[in-house]
Amino acid sequence: MPMTCAERGGYYEERRDKALELLAVKGFGQVSMRELASHLGLTAGSLYHHFPSKQHLLFDLIEELFEELLATLQPPRRRRGGNEDWLTSVIDAHWQLHRERPLQFRLAERDLCCLTDEQQARIKHLRDDYECQLLRLIAPTAALSKAARQAAGHAIATLLNSLPGWLQSSELPEAQRLALMQNLLLGAIERTLHDSAQVCAA
Q: CATH for 1-51?
């Protein structure tokens, strides 16, 4: 009996996850298409029916990650509480995303340079959009120059996506690690925006 669309989709996702694991553990440049095929239980020829190239697969995984990061910034329809409460929910969403997709974050940090120029340009566009939206939501009325806004957005996004990796390996209970991340980020965001505004006013 032929597989249904749902079964084929699940089969593809399963193989994609196995490919992600191999690439993340060994590194994009250390995995050949032949090794990837063997890892997935496919012949080298049939692998191309699933993934046109290693770069195509890598791009797909990194692009998906940045699209998920953008999704963490979608504000709830009705905000309850002040801006800090909403910001805490954004931090929580990033923490959860890092828990769910640690291997994709590793690939994005380490192997982005292995993509084609066109693919890197697409990822840069997504990253810039993410950082711009992040700052717009955090400080919609901040009086910053364009350069200061870009620098502040990049700094805050870097912290937001570095702290989970640092803290998740800690021996502290998870609730304490998350609370520490929230406190560090809320303080850093307030200070970053204050310092950036001071520079602009000087």
A: 1.10.10.60
